[in-house]
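Example record

One chain of 257 residues, shown exactly as stored in the release files.
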Amino acid sequence: MNQTFPEELFDLVFIPHLGDRLNELAELAETEDWEYRHAAEHHAHPVLYNYLRFTYRRLAEEEKVSVADDGRSIAMNIGLVTDSQEPIFMYCTQNRLEGREEPWHFTGWKRKGEHELTRFSALPEMAHYFDDPKNLVLDVRKELRANVEHIIQDNKERFPKPYNQMETYQLQTFLKGAIDNARERARRNYKTAVPQYYRGKVQLLLPLCLSRPSIADLALVVEDHGAFYRASTCFTLDMAYNNARQLARPDRDWLQP
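Predicted structure tokens for this chain:
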């Protein structure tokens, strides 16, 4: 059955008591830190909340939301597993609540072997983000072109104090040094470059350590342009972790929620 699904999860599925449902999923899935460390939290398990939103968006793009054989329920592989490595699915049934426009109503998180999923002759696959694994690793032989002026002009509010209060030229000096250090760090350890999925592309994140050499303050976003890399923006660590977690749980060398 071919269906068109909206871009946003919450336009498709009504999830009552969302905080409780996120708690249930966090308990069912492999143990993971789903909290922010650098910003205020507006949802229970904010990293998990954003992971579900972003993962669904990709599943909708790939048409990987499956409708049951009888048309009365849907399921999607959310890319998480239990401690015993059993895939977890979001399972929803038709929404019959008055006053709700969402066509589907969240029913539960289901392990692959549970009875409800026997209603699907074929279960949906997890989201897919890249075809060439080399896109996940920084090729340190390539030139890295950083638009330092643009990074500062568009993102100065993302810099921590006192850097966000510095004159532009002074901050440029700090930033250029931090970029050079990040590149050298990636030369020594390929895991330094953390892949992220953002706006339909796989990009790489490098740590910008402004105050201390081992603690990142921001993440530099690096795009592959074939013969060279280009960097023209930076993310807060929470933004970077949300985007990186969509692909996989990042190595904790420097990027943490």
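Notes: Helices lie at 9-12, 18-28, 46-61, 148-155, 168-188, 237-247.
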